[in-house]
Amino acid sequence: MADKDMHFSSDESDLEIDDKSECKSIHLSNSKQFQVYNNSSNEAGILCLPPEIIYEIFSYIKTKSLLQNVVTTSRYFYDFICSDEFMHHRLADCISKSTSNPTLVEEELSIYKKHGMFKIIDSLEQARSLTFNTVKSRIIDKCHFGDVHCVKILDNPCKNIAISGSRDKSICVYQLDHSEGPTLINTTTDHAGWVWTLDQEEGKSSRVVSGSWDSFLFLYDLGRGSLEKINDFMIHSAALCSKFETNFILSGTYSKLVIGIDVRSGKEVLRMKHHTKPVLGLASSPNFIWSTGEDNALSCFDRRAGKLFKRIRLERISSSIQYQDSYLWLAGFDGKIKVFNSAMRIISKYDSGHTKPITGMSHGMGVTATASKDGTVRLFSPNAHGELWKTFHLDHEVTAVDCKDGFLVAGGCGNVVRFWWNE
After folding, report:
1. Does residue 254 sit in helix, strand or coil?
2. Torsion-angle region of 174 (φ positive above 0: left; ψ -120 to 50: alpha; else: beta)
3. CA 230 to chain CA centroid, nearest Å
């Protein structure tokens, strides 16, 4: 599509109680009915207490393992803890500082439920631990000799490993340990240009991709704890962002293109031009590919139809974009975080509080983290309302951030990578 043909669209519980002979039914609107024990023999015991009191008791059980032990003690406790109501309040407690002001709405709850309550609670509690006064911090200042552009904390099977890329053309690997903290274990300088982007392959994979100003995508394996280069792909333009799907790499380039590489054949199988300026951010799902660029545009490509589905003009440039659970998250240079649904309609927007452009964002089940040129990193609740949890102040501009498994990492100007964690 030629630049002159570019065009844009202009989008930018009541409690019910039913008396029965054997039990009382208490449920929230639109949620699964929960049966509450009714003791007809007037015997004293925890099962005779109202559900609100039982929930208050269980709220003091802070760890996932102890809660799982309670589940196995009786069928009643199993039904109670696995009910929609308990999940709703427990998740709200993890996300909101005040139980009287829960920040989860029913629509968001349905998304969290599919991941499993214990997994969500674990992610939320790990993220909230970073807001405690006992949080530790470490600066690693001898890993890079140029500004750090990208950081990434990896998932299984490379859990407890983080990587960073810099203007000095190097990629560094760190071992993460909650007792000892992060340590530098490996460095590579394969690229001949600034390293702009890093991403891990979806699924349980130890492969990562790096993109650089040298117009190459390098494929590495971290299965043995160090970077082992296994392939490279020439894309004939600087790689500014990437998304690593299973056996498929998407890359946004300085030449305004989005390019798709089949890792198995090593061939380019997709080429799109939906922007008039360099592409800065990428996200994808099985049906769509989203991209943002310096032209203030958010574009959506329909993979099933094989054509552009929609393009909208944003208020400011957005270089950080992520897709999770049918929602698209964007962080813009205007300091605002926007949430879109799969139909590209904005459903929420909130101000991050940053006084300068947001340069990086990490959104997951447990937390939304943002980095900014104002020298701060901010942690928010991971829902569409964005309750501010914590602000970390650095003495330089921050360009990249990631948060996962109880670790927070940030990189930026000053040639340093900084980590936060709690034992």
Report:
1. coil
2. beta
3. 27
370 HSE (CA, 13 A, CB side): 37
Sequence-separated (6 or more) residues with CB below 8 Å from residue 273: 1, 256, 257, 258
Name the DSSP letter for residue 127: H
382 touches 366 (CB < 8 A): yes
| pLDDT averaged over every residue in the chain | 82
Mention every residue, 6+ apart, whose C-beta is less than 8 A from residue 365: 112, 115, 119, 120, 123, 124, 324, 382
Measured CA to CA, the distance from residue 121 to residue 102 in angstroms comes to 15
What pLDDT is recorded for position 111?
52
| Distances, alpha carbon 78 to alpha carbons 67, 125, 337, 351, 373, in Å | 10, 21, 38, 40, 48
Residue 322 near residue 283, CB atoms below 8 Å: yes
The 3-state DSSP class for residue 290 equals: strand
395 neighbors 150 (Cβ within 8 angstroms): no
Q: What is the largest CA-CA distance in the chain?
A: 80
Could you tell me how many helices (H) and strands (E) the chain has, helices first? 6, 31
Instruction: Read off the pLDDT of each residue in 124-148 and give the average, rounded to a whole number.
Output: 88
- For residue 29, CA distances in Å to 33, 54, 139, 208 come to 9, 21, 49, 45
The span from the CA of 378 to the CA of 368, in Å, is 8
Return the beta strands (E) in 9-92 as ranges: 16-19, 23-27, 34-37
| Element containing residue 361 per DSSP (H, E) | strand 358-363
Q: Is 265 exposed, middle or buried (0-12, 13-18, 19+ CB in 10 A)?
A: exposed
Q: Do residues 191 and 197 touch, judged by C-beta distance below 8 A?
A: no
**CA–CA gap between residue 140 and residue 183 (Å, rounded):** 8
The CB density around residue 9, as the number of other CB atoms within 10 Å, is 10
How many Å apart are CA 362 and CA 382, to the nearest integer?
10
Residue 86: φ, ψ to 5°: -65, -45
| Three-state secondary structure call for residue 79 | helix
Question: Model's pTM, two decimal places?
Answer: 0.78
For the cut 70, the answer to whether the pLDDT of residue 291 exceeds it is: yes
Gap between the Cα atoms of 309 and 10, Å rounded: 14
The answer, yes or no, to whether residue 360 has pLDDT greater than 60, is yes
- Residue 328 in contact with residue 285, Cβ under 8 Å? no
Closest by Cα among 176, 161, 106 to 384: 106
Rounded to an integer, what distance in angstroms lies between the CA atom of residue 67 and that of residue 60? 10
Place of tokens 């065009």: 7
